[in-house]
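I'll show one example:
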Amino acid sequence: MQKGILNFLFENRFYFAFYFSVVLHITFIIYSFNHSDSPYQKTLCGPPWIYATEDEKEVSFQMSFGKSSGESGSAEAADDPGDGEEGEEGDGGGFSKGKYKGSQWEELVKDLEGTSSLRKQFKNEYDQINENSGVADSYIKRNRDYEDIIVKDVLPTVKGIRDPFRVDIETAEDNLFVHKERNRIIEEFRKGDESSPPITMRVSKEGEAEPKSPLSMPKEDRSKYLDRTLKQKKEKQLDEFISRYMGYDPDKGDLSFFVRDLYYENLQRLAYPFSGDPSYFSIDYFQENLNKEDFLRQMMAALSENLGTNTGTEILFTIENIYEIQSRALEQYFQAKEYLKLATPELRETLRYETLRRVEEKYRKLLRDKKIFTLKDVEEAYSKKRVDIIDTLISKTPKGYRIKDGYFDKGRILWEAGMARKDSKLLTEAITNWNRIPNLPANGDFLNEKAFEAIQLLLRDLGNVSEAERLSSGSKDQIEFILRTRLSEAMNKKKEREDKLLWPKAKQKQGNSGN
C-alpha cells in the first residue's frame, strides 16, 4: 500500500508542485500588499484606503459648525477678522501634479494652478461703498478667501440633494475621507511640496471604548470661552473644541449645549450689506459657505456615532440649518448669474466678479444633472431634504429630547414651502404638525416656544382652525410674519456682540489700510 501511495505521488508530482506554487505565490502577494510601506497600499481583504495599519481605540473625526443669520434680513457673513494680510497662493513649485492626472483630483489641480496668480491678474477694489451703512471699515476690507471660494466647495449639498438622508449618513465617512484628502492636496500644492501624508481613516474595535464622563460647563463658563476664542480662525476654534470637549458623554452633562452654543454664537457670522454693488454680498455668502462645507462633512461623519443621543439631536438641528443656508446660497448663485450678464468690462476685471464667474461655471453642469434650473427647483429640492432630516431627528431623538422644536421646525418648513407654492395641503400639514406639540413630552429646551404660542393663539382666535383653506390671506401673512421674525431678538443680541468683539467702531479708521 505504501508503495502504491509513493507511485501515486511520483506520477502526479507536477500537479502537486504546481498547486503548492500557486498557493505560495498568492500568499506572498497578499502578505506583500497588506504589509506594504507605501502610503498608497492596498488591503485586499477590505476597502482599499480607509484603514491605517496601526490599531486605534476609537474613531477620530473633526467637526465644523455654522449658522444662518436668521430671518432678520441679515445673512451669513464672511470669514474672521484679523487673520492676516490678503495673500497669494503658492505657485505649486515642487508639487508633482502629474501623479494626479486621470484621477478624481485632476480638476482640483487645474483649479489650483488657475488660482495661483489670481490676485495678480485681477483688481481687488472697493466700489460704491455706502458711507452711511454703519459697517466698520475693518469688516468691509477684511480678508476674503477668493481662491478657496473657487477651489473648494461652496455648494456641498448639491451633489446629494436628491438622495434620501439615510444615504447621506451611510456615505458620510467616505465623504469625509474625500474631503480631508482634497484639503491635504490643496495644502500640499500651496506649500509647494509633498510632505503631508495621505489621509487615512482609523476604525475602532468594538468594546474598546471606555465610558465617557459628562461635561460640566455652565452657561457662564461657556460664554467666557466663546468670547475668548471668537476672533480666532474658525478652523482653529474647531480643532481646540474637538480635542478638548468632544470626548465627553453625548447624553449627560453640557456637551450638547456647548455644541449648540459654538454653532450659533461663534462659528456663524452675520453679513452686513455695505455697497450698492450686490456682488459683495454674494462673495460674502459664498465665503461663509466654505465653513458650511467643513461642518457638513465632519458632522455628518460624527452623526452615526451620536445618533440617538442629545448631542446627535443638536447635530441634526444644525445640519438641517446648513441645508436652509445652502438653499439661500443657491439663490445667490442664480442672482450672481444675472450680475455677470450685466457686468461692464471694468467689473469683469475685478477679483470678485472673476470669482463669481468661475463659481458659476464650476456648478453649471452639476446643477443641470440634478435638474435644478430655477429658484423654484431649489425650494422644492431643499424643502424635501430638510423635512427628511427633521423626520430623522424626530424618530431618533432620545426620550423626546427637543422633540417640540422638531415638530415646530417641520411645520415651519412645510408652511414656507406651502406659501411659496400656494399649496393649501402643505399649509394644512404644517398646522397638523404644530397641533401635535402640546401633547409631546417636555424634555430639553423648546427654543421656538414664543413663536409657537403666537401661532396657536392666532389659530385659536380664528376658531381652532386646522385646515388652511379656512384661513384668510391676512391670517396666513400673520403666521408668515411670526415665523420670519421669530429670531429677531436673538439676531439683535448677536449683532451687538459681534460689533463689540469683532467690529468695534473705534477701530474703523485703522481698517482703512485693509486686512
Q: What stands out?
A: The first strand starts at residue 75 and ends at 76. The two ends are 94 Å apart (CA to CA). Residues 310-342 form the longest helix (33 residues).
